[in-house]
Amino acid sequence: MRWIEFNSDGVVSLYVQHTSIGGVQRDSNANWLRGYAMSFGKESIFKVEIRAMLEGLFII
Fold first, then answer.
1. With 0-12 CB in 10 A as exposed, 13-18 as middle and 19+ as buried, what is 17?
2. Which residues of the chain are modeled with pLDDT < 70?
3. pLDDT of residue 1
4. 4-13 and 32-40 as β-strands: parallel, antiparallel, unpaired?
5. Do 33 and 39 meet the contact criterion of CB atoms below 8 Å apart?
6. What are the residue boundaries of the RNase H type-1 domain, all occurrences included (predicted)?
7. Which of 8, 28, 37, 44 could bond 22 through an S-S bridge, CB–CB 3.0 to 4.6 Å?
8. Which of 12, 23, 27 has the alpha carbon at shortest distance from 57?
9. Domain boundaries in the chain?
């Protein structure tokens, strides 16, 4: 059976008013398939975490 796992995370820096997201996708043998990283302006942590998950789903 073939499957894809993706891990994502978002971070909010209150010091510099900056947010970033990133993630990685791996196959069933834990081989790297693709990754992503993006930066944004000021956002809430909830929006950042949701955006990180959505971007991971969009690139599958």
1. exposed
2. 1, 60
3. 63
4. unpaired
5. no
6. 7-57
7. 37
8. 23
9. 4-58
d(CA 7, CA 56): 8
pTM score: 0.79
Give 11's contacts (C-beta < 8 A, 6+ positions apart). Answer: 19, 20, 21, 48
Residue 60: the pLDDT is 65
Q: What angle do CA 28, 30, 32 make, to 5 degrees?
A: 110
Structure tokens at 11: 């971070």
**Could you report the per-residue pLDDT of 42-53, keeping only the tens digit for each?**
888 899 999 999
